Amino acid sequence: EAGVDAQVIEVGLGGRVDSTNVFPTKEVAVITPLSFEHTAILGDKIEQIAAEKAAIITPGCVAVMAPQRYTEAAAVVREFAERAGARLVDVAEEYRWSAGEHDLRGQTVRIDRPRGAIEARLPLLGAFQAENAATAVAAVEALGPRLESLRHGGVADEAVVRGLEAVRWPGRMEVLRERPLVIADGAHNAESARRLRV
């Protein structure tokens, strides 16, 4: 209704029967790292969970797959993308990322992309956030042709860097106070807790 050129819609639970999957087509479908969650609804095998989540991939879209801990999950995502005729961007294969200097207010990240490297000061804590940033950059770049067709010329590197530097994620490794140090986080399953620890 607002006439936006692009919108990001986050799936609430799974994907196959989630209310956000009412859109018959999508430009980009992003599959974040899959782990054991909502097993009472999605299934207790990683392949079942992956199938529920990969069901957001529709014909003709670009499927961006974040690095996956479970090879079985990645195989399911690849299968869904192939069946839908969707181009697959495997972030683990096509991108490299690293975290550099960091303090309680964030960290410097470098993302090596197929079209060159970018660096940004990411105001999020945790080594895993560099990987998340690489996945977000891959998703933006996958949307590039759509934006070019709207005569926006794609997304400039400066805009990507500004976006990374402006991100806010309340309640996720959020420093509420420095003296004494108080951090709020909402790791909701074993994999989230594991990533929080490292």
Strands side by side in the biggest sheet: 1-2-3
The total beta strand count reads 8
Helix content: 25-40%
Largest sheet: 3 strands, parallel
Q: How do the helices and strands follow one another from N- to C-terminus?
A: EHHEHEHEEEHHEEH
The stretches of 5 or more residues where confidence is low (pLDDT under 50) are none
> What separation lies between the terminal Cα atoms?
42 Å
Structural class: alpha/beta
Q: Output mean pLDDT.
A: 88
Using the alpha-carbon principal axes, give the shape: globular
| Cα radius of gyration in angstroms | 17 Å
Please report which band the strand proportion falls in: under 5%, 5-15%, 15-25%, 25-35%, 35-45% or over 45%. 15-25%
**Number of helical regions:** 7
Describe the protein.
It is a single chain. A 3-stranded parallel β-sheet has the order 1-2-3, sandwiched between helices. Strands 4-5-6 form a 3-stranded antiparallel β-sheet. A two-stranded antiparallel ribbon has the order 7-8. It is 36% helix and 22% strand. Helix 2 runs parallel beside helix 3 (71-84). It is an alpha/beta fold. A hairpin with a 2-residue loop joins strand 7 (174-178) and strand 8.
